[in-house]
Amino acid sequence: MAQVLKWGWRLSGFLTVVLVFSFFRKSNELKPYHVNGFAQGTTYHITYYAEDSVLRRSQADSIFHSIDSSLSVYKPYSLITRFNQCKRGIIADRHLKKVVAKALEVSRASGGIFDITVMPLVKLWGFGPEGKTKAEPTARQIREVLSYVGYRKIYFKEDSLIKKDYRTTIDVNGIAQGYTVDVIAGFFESKGIRNYLVEVGGEIRVKGSKQPSGELMKIGIERPSETVDDSNPVLIKRIRVKEGAVTTSGKYRNAYKSGSKKISHLMDPRTGYSIRNEMISATVLAKDGITADAYDNVFMGMSVNEAFAFLKKHPGLEGYFIYSGKDGAVADTASAGFNALLEK
């Protein structure tokens, strides 16, 4: 009898171990969670893998609201609007300070191709918060605006962002969504989430893989048409990225025609005119969204040859470019690092 009880104890203990092991294994399984919505004038899609939900729609919206309250030129109460309306400067919060600091860094690296003080030019050519107009400015108007455009006309003094000319205004829309995906990625990292994809308006930050398959997440790249109003771009490439950010800038999304000329919202702050070169779109892979988003704008202001020369000097960047060839046909090309990620 004693032996039977002893054996029964052993069996019970074995079952307990099995049940406990099964419980922990089940609790450690990662499930997919999806958060989708509308923010920053566009859509966002977030996928992450976790044991339990760590990000709700309301939390995501709160993050967007915090960023927009600092960086949106479309919000009359935002910090950037206050800077644009003031004559001297303001105390910058963490969002504005980080984004402007990065913008100035990229402006110096690109020789002024990327410049957040370009906002008066953008408005002069009929783009921006006030809406579009198809009336071209005169050369005199452009020269006047250029007198207070230029990244050297703003600077930081401790925590304050200062302008040298009271007419200088800034617009960080060309870099803000890349920064936004970084902020959300930082939220996931703080919660111990290591597998996620964050997409805001086509700008993407990704880390890890799908669970439980372990398959790397795919990112699609669009090919624009040659028409000005392109509402149905074609998905032509897919890449698989383990970690990093992928962003795209293009002339085809926001443009109008003036006579035989195509006027893009992308302005060259050095000349005052809309960028005119063979580049149609530039997709950049970098370690984070703010870097990729800034440099996709830089490459739009370069020729394809200039873009590849720049990439050689900046090994942390990879690029994929769609451009118009000498015969007018649309072509594409990519850096070796980017090409290695393309789905065959």
From TrEMBL:
Reaction(s) catalysed by this chain's protein: L-threonyl-[protein] + FAD = FMN-L-threonyl-[protein] + AMP + H(+)
Domain of life of the organism encoding this protein: Bacteria
Cofactor or coenzyme needed: Mg(2+); Mn(2+)
TM ranges: 7-24
Keyword annotations from UniProtKB, A to Z: FAD, Flavoprotein, Magnesium, Membrane, Metal-binding, Transferase, Transmembrane, Transmembrane helix
Cofactor note as given: Magnesium. Can also use manganese.
Any Pfam family hit: ApbE
Broad EC category: transferase
Residues where Mg(2+) binds: 174, 293
EC numbers, comma separated: 2.7.1.180
UniProt xrefs under InterPro entries: ApbE, ApbE-like_sf
Molecular function as annotated in GO: metal ion binding; transferase activity
Record family assignment: Belongs to the ApbE family.
Name recorded for this polypeptide: FAD:protein FMN transferase
Species of the source: Niabella ginsenosidivorans
